[in-house]
Amino acid sequence: MFRELRRKDKKLDDSAVLDILNNSDYGVLGTISENDYPYTVPMNYVFLNGNIYLHSAKSGHKIDNLKNNKKISFTIVSESKIIPKKFSATYKSVSIMGKAYFIDNDEKKKALIAFIDKYSPAYKKSGIKYIDRTLDKVEIIKIEIEYLKGKNSDG
In 3D, which of 53, 11, 1 has the Cα closest to residue 29? Predict the structure, then answer.
């Protein structure tokens, strides 16, 4: 169903993939518009219990796309560096294919707390108060991973 990595010598091991998933700041979400064109948007995320969680407004292009088609791609790039002399670059990346679901209740709050822990740990107390005030005003998208691959480019 999903293509394997063509250059197996560039495949990242599980430990390196987990490091990228746990420590990178953002990824690019790819969705399919109702006119069959791809739509991509960079987003902050958390990796929690083997899933990717995204924080979003309750309406917009990506929300419309996900209501129409839950299949997604999500790509994270870390340690990117251009090497002008070689006309190349070095980077590590993780590419994910999966399905997106809108979540609620306890799972939604746990995901939002994970965002606070990742991006604003010094403000956890006020972050939890903020979550309690705005819980119904935000959307949390859960990506269930169906396929994942990590790649290393050494320039």
Answer: 53
Tens of pLDDT, residue by residue over 81-112, are 998 998 888 889 999 999 999 999 899 999 99
CB 74: neighbour CB atoms within 10 A?
23
- Specify the pTM: 0.92
Dist CA 111 CA 142 (whole Å): 9
SS3 content of the chain, % helix, strand, coil (to 5): 35, 45, 20
Please name each of the domains of the chain with its CATH number: 8-154 (2.30.110.10)
- The Cα 150–Cα 121 span in angstroms is 28
Q: List Cα–Cα distances, 60 to 30, 33, 67, 139, 141, in angstroms.
A: 14, 12, 11, 11, 13
Nearest to 140 by CA among 69, 74, 44: 44
Per the structure block, which two tokens stand in for 66?
A: 């996900």
Query: Cα separation of 75 and 7, whole Å?
Result: 18
Contact 96, 52 (CB under 8 A): yes
